Amino acid sequence: MTPFSYQRPERIDQAIALHGPQSRYIAGGTNLLDLMKENVLQPGQLIDINGLPLREIERTAEGGLRIGALVSNADLAWHPQIEQRYPLLSKAILAGASPQLRNMASTGGNLLQRTRCYYFYDTATPCNKREPGSGCSARDGRNRIHAILGASEHCAAVHPSDMCVALAALDARVHVEGTHGKRRLELVDFHRLPGDQPQQDNVLIEGELITAIELPVEGFASHCAYLKVRDRASYAFALVSVAAALEMDGDIIRRGRIALGGVAHKPWRLEEAEELLNGKRAEPECFAAAADRLLQGAQPLADNAFKIDLARRAIVRALTEAAGGTVR
Amino acid sequence: MNSANSPLGKPLDRVDGPLKVTGKACYAAEAEVPGLLYGAVVSSSIARGRIKGIDAAAAEALPGVRLVLTHQNRPPVASYDEPYEDDDAADGSPFRPLYNDRVLYSGQPLALVVAETQALARHAASLVRIEYEVEAHQTDLQAAREQAHDAPAELPEPRGDFDSACAAAAKRVDCEYGTPVEHHNPMEPHASIVQYQPGGELLIHDKTQGVQNCQRYLEQVFDMQGKIRVLSPFVGGAFGSGLRPQYQLPLAVMAALKLKASVRVELTRQQMFTFGYRPRTFQQLKLAADGEGRLRAIEHKAIGQTSRFEDFTEHEVEWSGMLYACDNVRLGYRLAPLDVYTPLDMRAPGATIGVYALECAMDELAHEVGIDPLELRLRNYTDINGNEGKRYSSKELRACYQQGAERFGWSRRPAQPRSLRDGHQLVGMGMATGVWEAMQMPASARACLDADGRLLVTSATADIGTGTYTAMTQIAADAMGLSMAEVEFRLGDSSLPQAPLEGGSATVSSVGSAVQRACAGLRQKLLDAVQQSPASPFTGANLETVEFVDGQLRLKSGEHAVPLRDIVQVSGALEAEASVKPDEKRDAWATGTHSAVFVEVRVDEDLGTIKVSRVVSAIAAGRIVNPKTAGNQIVGGVVWGIGQALHEETLIDHRLGRYMNHNLAEYHIPVNADIPEIDVIFVEEHDEIVNDLGSKGVGEIGIVGVAAAVANAIYNATGKRVRDLPITLDKVL
Q: Taking 90 as the threshold, does the pLDDT of residue B514 lie above it?
């Protein structure tokens, strides 16, 4: 870890004003500190945002919820409003990390987790995300855990969050604030594909701070499922995860959402695939068709071809579970 | 003595438990030493080559950095191989840290930065720039198979005629099994504190399984005879990783000598992947049987990886020549040198992987013959170790099979694979046999009864979490007729009586026997002391006619008793030391521990996820000194066996020659959610040959066979044989 300066502002505008090219905001620090210890990140300044007033969960005017960026993952998952109205989000959060990590990790920080690509974490190896232009070691290396969708020749990393997969399915929005004022982004547009700039995980511009996540009114509370497939029963990142949310009318799907984790540089959604669910009877053939459409164009690397078939099966399973009613 | 009040055989809590749970047990990196400096290791990023230059200017320029130690400025060290050959050294030329400019493997320590704080040392280490002359490397065992040579192992000669027996047999299996590299990863990272004494002597706090091994190594390497004492009272797990002195120890010594100051070197978790490990292997098993499943021929050939500087060998294939009755056996073991560090003994070294392959092949043979896998084992049962041609001193494996099968409900196993289902889950049951040695090594112990009647027993052994403190206290308390509270056992100090490395499941057998013998000597001294007085009622008594119970020495006739405390109040403290070697009567016998492991798995038919849902492990290991700590050992072994079967693998990128998942987020071991109730049975096994205690040790046997039982259960559940560990979900999809 390299030496850094440390500030703890108490107002959002102070935090933003402090931010410079060498700065990082720190909240729970569950990922940032690891990255600093490994010298993957070497910020010259840490701006501790834990003193900012961003810990509330409030009703929005339209009836949704606004979640302060500093609400811990644990508090969010166990919040009565989240458990009742947005069980998909609660389940996704609890599928991730460990109780200790969820107690520390913040809502905003969860969005900003870096990939678990082995090469990103090892400074002795080339990695375009860590060191732009140095090359991608994963593409022809150990890539069992890497992307099958939306990757580029420059990067095959996947986004590791479970929470974001549920947020993507729920059409959540991200509130950010920076020197140029406030912005509101769709969560599905917040993370980006690697393209030729894999060092950019998301669309935040320098100094911008996530202040809140907003959930719309519809929470798909009665028919949702989060299925995470991983190499051990807990404390492992997803090989494939599926957030499935359905609005049912008897056994007819009125509206469906599917988001995938563990397969791309961002939570993966596709409207065309979801449209194949709408108005259909909830049965395996319909789910399989949607899965096929969602996975269209998937491109495996040497070690991860299994993910395509696995994702397809996981989507069908998750939609089947969701159609049967949310397991409480 | 073993009276009704004896603690021997009782499931007692660990005597060191309160110290550990209250944080008062002081581990190697925690010793409080004034003026301590901190080292951080700079590791190589290439697998093979030469150091062209080391630019340490940026590190050295930082205030508080005291030294950047490299091969160019280190203190003098021995230049022959012998001084580096420790008690667990492999054949060859041991690795010498900071010896010269050669880079032998990725992760090799190339420099040590010493600074006034740990954080500063690590930061400064990140600023050291090393320029390499890179050479082509090979780290892939698969690609190097053709370059393998015969291992320097003393394999049993082939017996019978494998080829013709195999050709004539009615049933055959011929399979290859692969096992990956695994790293020990004890919870406590390796660490050493070298405390520099005013006279230049070194008092060292180290994480090790053998304080005297480390002491001798350092005395030889640094030519410091008699100037080094090594302490290691508590070890936060080791599993074999502490059998050899690890490189942080000589690095800390070099820095201390150079700076004439006390230095700590603690490895990072990433650096815990930069020394010994379980080697990758490929094993070919050929089994041939008659139509009823009686084994006619066995061939077991293994290829393992080793380094270019040492030939690491373990007992990998021998088990196939001893576990079952078979007249025609051929064993082979080859090693392929790679640009990697030398492998190192890890929990049941050799057996963990060799018995995995054998026991999977036995399952395949059972299927081929069309009989129950347990029945196949029973049809080939033997009380004779075929490799040695000797009868086992005791072998209650049949009882393990019987009691284990009954507890597990083996009779309910579906004979047809993929025929039992519960919702989306395919349910399967598998079993395997386990076997390990029952070794004894020379060991010494001292027993001293002080004037207050408290017994202090000492030996330079280790407690790596296995329960040595507790078991030795029990053995001594039993031998002297004292309560546990009246006895203290001390270990982990090189100045104490000689003890072997703590490994191989031999500590109770070796050190326990020495403790027993030392206590016997002390009993004689106590009797001598009471007989000093002319009017002693013990006049004419001998150790056969007296007993030591309830803190007293008394005549067996019951006429007289005297508290031990009263004797030493008059005589002053009494002391006896004993050295014990394995008894010659062992030579005529084969010795071993055995187990039968039964496992149930549930495999999701769509997603391939595997859950071990039940385990029964029945163990025959002679007398169990403490069923609670012994049970811990078995449970820990079973957990690791499940990890071996399903999770553990150190992934290497062969282009870089470098391990890539070198942290505990990506190197998977089982978590609590992966582990079901584990039912451990210790079957009765009486043995008068192995040692006076009749106790064989349980550190290794718990893991052996578990991975095979899991793999066999997965076959029973899914109908799919996966022959390359770990069995991850993509392999069963």
A: yes
Q: Do B671 and A38 touch (CB under 8 A)?
A: no
Residues 6+ apart with CB under 8 A from B570: B529
CB contact A236 to B (< 8 Å): yes
- Tell how far CA B60 is from the center of its chain: 40
Interface of B with A in 350-389 (CB under 8 A): none
Strand B678-682 relative to strand B610-620, pairing: parallel
Residue B327 lies in a domain: no
Is the Cβ–Cβ distance between A67 and A107 less than 8 Å?
yes
- The CA distance from B49 to the nearest CA of chain A, in Å, is 15
Q: Which CATH class is domain A5-50?
A: alpha beta
Instruction: State the pLDDT at residue B3.
Output: 64
**pLDDT tens digits along B135-161:** 999 999 999 999 999 999 999 999 999
Domain ranges of chain A: 5-50, 52-112+159-215, 225-323
CATH architecture of A225-323: 2-Layer Sandwich (3.30)
Residue B184 has pLDDT above 60, yes or no: yes
**Residues B468 and B599 occupy one common structural domain:** no
Q: Give catalytic residue positions of B.
A: 700
Looking at the DSSP assignment, which residues form a beta bridge with residue A48? A26
- Please give the pLDDT value at position B402: 98
Return the structure tokens found at B632: 């811990």
pLDDT band at B273 (very low <50, low <70, confident <90, very high): very high
Is pLDDT of B2 > 60? no
What is d(CA B88, CA B82) in angstroms, rounded to the nearest whole number?
Answer: 13
Q: Do B607 and A124 touch (CB under 8 A)?
A: no
**B452 at A interface, C-beta within 8 A:** no
Instruction: Tell me the shortest Cα–Cα distance from A122 to chain B, in angstroms.
Output: 8
| A140 lies within 8 A of chain B by CB | yes
Q: Does A6 touch chain B (CB under 8 A)?
A: no
pLDDT tens sequence across B190-214: 999 999 999 999 999 999 999 999 9
Helix axes B627-646, B706-718, angle to 10 degrees: 50
Neighbours of A130 (CB within 10 A): 23
Nearest-angstrom CA–CA distance, B337 and B351 = 21
Q: Which residues of B touch A228 (CB under 8 A)?
A: none
Do B603 and B722 sit in the same domain of this protein? Answer: yes
**Segment B367-380 mean pLDDT:** 98
The whole-angstrom distance between residue B25's C-alpha and the CA centroid of its chain comes to: 22
Residue A1 has pLDDT above 90, yes or no: no
Is residue B385 one of the residues assigned to a domain?
yes
Identify whether residues B661 and B555 lie together within a single domain: no
- Determine the average pLDDT of the residues in B488-492: 98
Strands B455-458 and B487-490: parallel
ipTM entry: 0.97
**A184 CA to chain B: closest CA distance, Å?**
33
Region A118-136: mean pLDDT is: 98
A302: phi then psi, degrees, rounded to nearest 5: -60, -40
pLDDT band with cut points at 50, 70 and 90 for residue B260: very high
Question: Phi/psi class of residue B248: alpha, beta or left (left: φ > 0; alpha: ψ in -120 to 50)?
Answer: alpha
Top residue of A41, A119, A142 to mutate, by most chain B CBs within 10 Å, is A142
CA–chain centroid gap for B147, Å, is 29
* CATH domain A52-112+159-215 topology: 3.30.465
* Whether the Cβ atoms of residue B394 and residue B686 lie closer than 8 Å to each other: yes
Is the sign of the CA dihedral B459, B463, B466, B470 positive or negative?
A: positive
Q: How high is the pLDDT of residue A28?
A: 98
Domain boundaries, position B399? 350-439+587-732
Best to test chain B binding among A1, A122, A139 (most B CBs inside 10 Å): A122
Instruction: Give the pLDDT mean for B648-672.
Output: 97
Helices (H) and strands (E) in chain A, counts: 13, 11
Q: What is the pLDDT of residue A220?
A: 98
